[in-house]
């Protein structure tokens, strides 16, 4: 969800106002995803690197997370949305941790859609935490395989993302789901997060639909050509 600061600067408003404006994007985006048949959405709200922002901005963001839980969770729960958080929540204030836990608990039986919020999330941190956790639980790390590591990540039980949308034009992954993004399709739009909406989701999904996902295999057409070349000789 990038571009809140630029959105605010263009209007000569404080950055925190941009972050507040960004919150109102969440609901229409979720609805557009749902209408398109996308039932799992992760929002990258705060990275492990975002702590290096000015203290007042970090404080405003933390306040906003709590306020957003207070204002949104009731309705999301009524709509059958399951809320989850990924990231190292131990660094959040006890008050915010409690709000996050309560939001997860109250929505845990919901099945209509999953809203996953990445807060104090970093892909590198997640992988290191997962390996440490396995070690603490006595796993034989010399036998570690991809399934075991996947199952120890914050995203255990969730499928890998099919599509990663980055708003505000930056062409980088910024420590987001480094492991899970192995074969994710990436869509970058210049649109700033507060300006992003249902029409942008539709555009992103249309672009996604045109992608040829091969997961490392050869393109279908190439495989057919290969068969055509090989088959006559092997007859
Ligand atoms: C993203 O918007 C929101 C968070 C990191 C919480 P930015 O604050 O990074 O906006 P820009 O990049 O300055 O426009
Ligand atoms: Mg940014």
Which architecture would the CATH scheme give at its second level?
3-Layer(aba) Sandwich
Main sheet attributes: strand count, strand direction, barrel closure: 3 strands, parallel
| Count of separate DSSP helical elements | 8
Average pLDDT figure: 96
Shape field? globular
Radius of gyration: 20 Å
CATH structural fold name: Undecaprenyl pyrophosphate synthetase
Find the structural class using helix and strand composition.
Answer: alpha/beta
Strand numbers in spatial order across the main sheet: 1-3-2
Helix content: 40-55%
Query: Beta-strand percentage?
Result: 5-15%
What do we call the CATH homologous superfamily?
Answer: Decaprenyl diphosphate synthase-like
Number of domains: 1
Protein described:
- This protein has 235 residues and is an alpha/beta fold.
- The protein has one domain: Undecaprenyl pyrophosphate synthetase.
- Helices cover 49% and strands 13% of the residues.
- The chain has eight helices and five strands.
- A three-stranded parallel sheet has the order 1-3-2, sandwiched between helices.
- Helix 4 links the parallel strand 2 and strand 3.
- The radius of gyration is 20 Å and the shape is globular.
- The N and C termini lie far apart (56 Å).
- The model has no long low-confidence stretch (mean pLDDT 96).
- The protein binds 3-methylbut-3-enyl trihydrogen diphosphate and magnesium ion.
- 3-methylbut-3-enyl trihydrogen diphosphate binds next to helix 1 and strand 1.
- The site of 3-methylbut-3-enyl trihydrogen diphosphate has 11 residues, from helix 1 and strand 1.
């Amino acid at each position: 969800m990038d571009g809140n600061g630029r959105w605010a600067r263009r209007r000569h408003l404080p950055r925190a106002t941009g972050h507040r404006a960004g919150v109102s994007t969440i609901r229409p985006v979720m609805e557009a995803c749902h209408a398109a048949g996308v039932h799992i959405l992760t929002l990258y709200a705060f990275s492990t690197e975002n702590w290096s922002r000015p203290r007042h901005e970090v404080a405003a963001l933390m306040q906003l997370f709590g306020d957003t839980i207070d204002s949104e969770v009731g309705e999301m729960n009524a709509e059958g949305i399951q809320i989850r958080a990924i990231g190292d929540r131990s660094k959040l204030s006890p008050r915010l941790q409690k709000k996050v836990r309560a939001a997860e608990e109250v929505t845990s039986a919901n099945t209509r859609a999953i809203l996953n919020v990445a807060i104090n999330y970093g892909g590198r941190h997640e992988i290191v935490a997962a390996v440490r956790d396995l070690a603490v639980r006595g796993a034989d790390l010399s036998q570690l395989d991809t399934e075991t590591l996947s199952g120890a990540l914050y995203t255990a039980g969730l499928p890998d993302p099919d599509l990663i949308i980055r708003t505000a034009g930056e062409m980088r992954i910024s420590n987001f789901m480094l492991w899970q993004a192995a074969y994710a399709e990436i869509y970058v739009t210049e649109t700033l997060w507060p300006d992003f909406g249902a029409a942008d989701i539709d555009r992103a999904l249309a672009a996604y639909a045109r992608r040829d996902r091969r997961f490392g295999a050869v393109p279908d057409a190439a495989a057919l050509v290969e068969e055509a070349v090989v088959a006559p000789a092997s007859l």
